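Try it yourself: sequence plus iron/sulfur cluster, in.
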Amino acid sequence: MNKRIRELKKQLGDQLIIPAHHYQKQEIIACADIIGDSYKLAVDVSSIDAEYIVFCGVKFMAEGAAILAKEHQRIILPASNAGCPMADMISIDQAETAMQNIHEFCGQSAIPVVYMNAYGDLKALSGRYGGSVCTSSNAQKIMTHYLQNNTPVFFLPDYCLGINTARELSIPDEQIAIVRQDCTIETTGKPEDIKLFLWDGNCRVHQRFTTEHIERIRDEHPGIRVIVHPEVREQVAAAADYAGSTQYIYNTIQKAPAGTIWGVGTEYNFVSRVAADFPEKSIFPIFESHCSNMEKTTINNLQYMLEAIADDTLLLKYPDHIISVPESIRKDAALSLNNMISIVQEN
Ligand code: 13P
Ligand code: SF4
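Structure, out:
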């Protein structure tokens, strides 16, 4: 951590908390008070009282914190342009049209389960229809919870997390439909049999991983265990030994015996840090893929935020970095996030 950031953190004391997502670069992680996957960050941040939460991650994550924030809290994003192309792959209008088309297609409403990697208006939609947010760490639990009621689930926006979760739950192809970007529905099954409608979105960072990368790394390192994030393609998840959230990946490697060899299929900065944190294991990226949005947080923009908090010029200098959600969607979006937390804690 640089000297000035250390001084500012000391000066701001309990007023300030810096959460950082696992994909942040090492120099940002070194400044963070909380590090985690998107579920851990959402839960941990919702239980703190600090007035200033400087969220090192991307916008949908900071928005999630703003939805659950208390009235006196300010959520600040050091890189105000740190978006997520996957979250941009569905608008509220598309989601509403898809909900209508699904109803016409199978004669009943689906429950929307919205991946954390979506903006507040979509989280609010799932709250309004009795659904929930989910993250990669709990998608199986959340889907199982809703599928038990014999109501179809509309999962959005990540097709890959959806299909990889469906495979874990042994849902056959005839019970799955894909909802294309123009809201048309494609399936090989009968409308009345469909359990899962999957929106056709994806993460470009995770689409780059291929089964050839896994084959190559297995040839190069006999005995290697391959672990991937479930945003990878279905064939890539099937070729890996384990799949799970960033926190799951971190914990699994942490618990593994010294001397084990790991090939990791997710964002490169994270893989490098896991390798540095556990030098007694051999850890390799299966391919070097960066999330350019996560990389937009820098020591400079983090320091500018802390300086502006300390001299009370935040609102004046950086209004675009203060993340909030309109009150008209906040309540339903909070319901949807809280539904996720209750389902996870009950199971
Ligand atoms: P995690 O919830 O596993 O940290 O994933 C967030 C993400 O954006 C992965 O691309
Ligand atoms: Fe979005 Fe993919 Fe980056 Fe995650 S890795 S924030 S899903 S672009």
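One thing you can check immediately is this: The two ends are 39 Å apart (CA to CA).
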